[in-house]
Input
Amino acid sequence: MNQQMIELLAGGIKETLYMTLVSTFIAYVIGIPLGVICFITDKNGICPGRIIHLVTGILINLLRSVPFLILLVAIIPLTRLIVGTTIGSTATIVPLVVAAAPYVARMVESSLKEVDAGVIEAAKSMGSSRLQIIYKVLLPEAKPSLLVGGLISMATILGYSAMAGFVGGGGLGAIAINYGYYRYQTDIMFVTVAFLVLIVQLFQEAGIWLVNRIDKRSA
Amino acid sequence: MIRLEHITKEFSSKNKKVTAVKDVSIHISKGEIYGIIGFSGAGKSTLIRCINLLETPTSGKVYFGNQELTSVGEKELRLARQKMGMIFQQFNLLEQRNVLKNICYPLELAGISKNDRVKRAKELLRVVDMEEKENFYPSQLSGGQKQRVAIARALATNPEVLLCDEATSALDPITTRSILALLKHINEMLGVTIIIISHEMRVVEQVCDKVAVMSEGIIEEAGEVKEVFLNPKSETAKRLILPDKDEAGSDADRYSIRIAFDGQSSFEPVFAALVLESGIRLNILGANTENIGGKAFGQMLIEMPEEPEKQVIVKEMLRKKGTHFMEGGDVG
Output
């Protein structure tokens, strides 16, 4: 493995991290409110609203049921509109966010569902407003679970980002496809896969360590 | 203080309509400890939730002081709720906050500054005797300790009313006693009106002034605890007060009386004195008594001698000693 290869891989790792982290962040910016809305508008939620619940539910399911590779191609016009190009890491962020945000929303919703209904009732009985229940009770109480969800989402987004390599995205996935698949350089393929595994593993370990630290239920 | 007028609450699922509370009216005065007792599914929890409108009654009115809660807007309701504390069977503490911050929560809602919040929270920790645990998290506490924290939290905003929804049902008998003693103490010290929901007669016996007996959504009888306890009229009250009814001699020929202990000194040997002084042999058919803080609570079912004159002597002695009893035609 020569200098050129090492630089190529280093660049790939950087791009992969960039795509994954930025996409995860934006997906959460969209996904948390979406998940919260979905949760609170439920029939038994703190702010029941059939229509909003139905609409958000359908939107989430619709986006989640489109296979990522198809979504990637289908929203090319949107990507071009936002980023100005459809090639490279930054362009990949758009489809990644579109695919991940609804996924994150479901993750958030399921984390919030873990919060004991009794605790929400107690908060109500103390005179909390709905907004106070959301940011003082629901989100803090669900924090460890939200973090676990974040880790899972990140690993999924990392996987998606590699897929984007097929249609001109950057990162380790693109290297694996361009060198390993099109040029039959199996060794490079293995190295990139090893790096992908390593990144997921690192995120996972660091995340679990963090969750254990902040979760007061197991203190 | 609190007045419920013709409260009815229906729950409707797909094709079934369940009426949990049927046309209940009660009046709870300031400073009272009011018990609502009944078996599971009687509608007690639904009723107490109607008081702070965690459940909106299908019909009827809830008055808190002079305010009709069933007609106020959301903001007023929130403010009213800050004047009513509530504690629960499952404690419902915020798991990710420590003890001190749990107590601070209602104070945050009330918009109190951080310094004052901490000061007040520490004050309350003293009241519930949990000062050393302020930095603990709920998962590190026992059930009784959690309930103490929950009580402190419920009292943080100086509420006028404390609602207790099966607050001791998840606790062992000794812890139950200590929590009840704490509630009584709070009632006496702070003058907080307390409403207690329970399925256990001994809970009501120990702390309540008044009691309402509930069954299938209806208040079957209500009144002073002593009155209801000594003279239960409704079927539910009898079943709650006389749990051993079926076992304690169904023989109709036996003539028995029920002696009630409602707070006499437990050091006074009532029964032994009765036997020794009267010289009559009496048979205990069943007993269910508890010593709470040096006072005896509970009851004893005694088989009376067959001779009428001896019966008179026994009754006369009981009367002289000021012991409550009830001729138990329907007890035995």
